[in-house]
Amino acid sequence: MPKTSNRRAAGDARTAWAAYRRLPLLVDTEIARDLESGTGLSMPDYDVLTAVTEMAAEEECVRVSGLAARMHWPHSRLSRQLGRMERRGLIAREPCERDGRGDDVVLAEPGRQALAAAGPVHLASVHRRFLDLLTPEQLAALTGIEETIARHRAALSG
Length: 158
Hints:
Blueprint: H1 3-39, H2 43-58, H3 64-71, H4 75-87, E1 91-95, E2 103-107, H5 109-129, H6 136-157
Antiparallel strand pairs: 1-2
């Protein structure tokens, strides 16, 4: 391959990497701002409430370790977030009655209400700040990229 092609490919790779790194700053920040101003929930609050709801529909008990794994968060980060949310009455930690081992993370009624109110705000923001700006081809390419990286990660860990 000629040197010009190598330099162009390296430049394209650097540009793609920089774009990837900027994307969360451009999108996530705006969605988080919309969510907080519209509902008072932070993005981590919303992420935890959503994950607890999803896990509760699938699992006997929602354990902190399982929740951390599902969210790809370090256990310590999730524990701190849960503590903040518990103090605000959004979640509770209760003994798991189904198996008697450890605590179950559950949504408290204020957390359930907050999530119900936040869902439409979050969805509208995701559309306005991201989905509606991209073509179907761009969305498909982004999905394909994520699937490729997830398969690679799974192959390395499995």
